[in-house]
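Two quick folds needed for the group meeting slides. Do the first one here.
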Amino acid sequence: MNRFFLWFVKLTGLPLQYFYFRKKIYYEDKSIQRRKIKGGALVVSNHYSVYDYPLIMYTFFGRSLRTLVAEVIYQKGKFMSWFMKRLGAIRVDRDSYDFSFMSAMVKCLKDRQVGLVFPESRIGEENEKLDGMLEFKPSFVYMALEAGVPIIPVYVNGVYGKDKRKKHDRARIIIGKPINLQEMYDENKSEKDNINDLCNYVREYIKNLGKLLEQKKREE
């Protein structure tokens, strides 16, 4: 990751993102978790679009997010591959069963960096299934447990570009309270059951953040 390049991109894109996203940030409990993140943490979000990443990046503007990025993005050309590398993205080859991305992310988290994961993995029309969210892949649970860092759950409404104009809305995001998976791990259960339960818990938590976001929006 080239920190100078990353900050150059963030600063030059700052005026554009205000115009494009018109983002509105909400909090489950602002006294517990604001936009400032101290130490290592893993931000976990639902996933609508490639624009979810810059929205979250500008939400947590003060930290450099190490994001898991699917190989399909890198296949868009040499420039995109170079660009992702400079931003500090961690490549995920989903079809090769190469799990080196997990150890790479754990190392970053242990170094007190902030990671970003979209456990649904894929975007598009499939997001209409399973009450608006796809099944979560459990790798983020392993990474958070191994690194010993909290999860910061967020929900984005996925309203960008044409959708924003069509719905007369804006990009909205809500930041939830940190989740400490280590404290929730049940030694009386198998590792597999623990991972499944924790994965489903975080998914349900983020889904409920979406409901809370809509409630706060109605109350405005």
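Then this one, please, same format:
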Amino acid sequence: MANSFLLTDKESVMKNLKKIEEENSGLHAGRVNSLMAANYVDCDIQTSTVTIEFEIKPWELNRAGVLHGGVICTMLDHTAGAALTAFSGSWCPTVDIDVRFISFGQLGDTIIATGRIVSAGKSVFHTEAVLKNKDTGKIIATSTSTFLNVLKKENPAL
């Protein structure tokens, strides 16, 4: 997806992911994104996608002993937002998120999260995110989201 909003070189996108990781362990330590201990694994320039890993922690479980739905939503939102931040170089607020719960995660599972920018327009960005169990490949949840474009560049994607 070539447009004026998104970076097109892997080095710059990975540098932005590293910056998110550093902020989560420094400036924003103790906040929810930091507590989830995301590991920013990779990006794909051609598909405007980032890959993140989360290991399920005890505090993320509900009373049934599985990954809490609110934490699943947070992981999806964070993954989509990290994709947007990595490719645009700027944080943009979530306008809406639509989540589909498919399976569950358990303590100690590693979640592979992928976030993808679907479109980058003048007013909003559209994204998708997927959470999968790293060992089984089973999908835990998916989402589509809209983020407000705070960059306000004049050449949006078509």
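Slide caption for protein two: Helices lie at 10-25, 32-35, 69-88.
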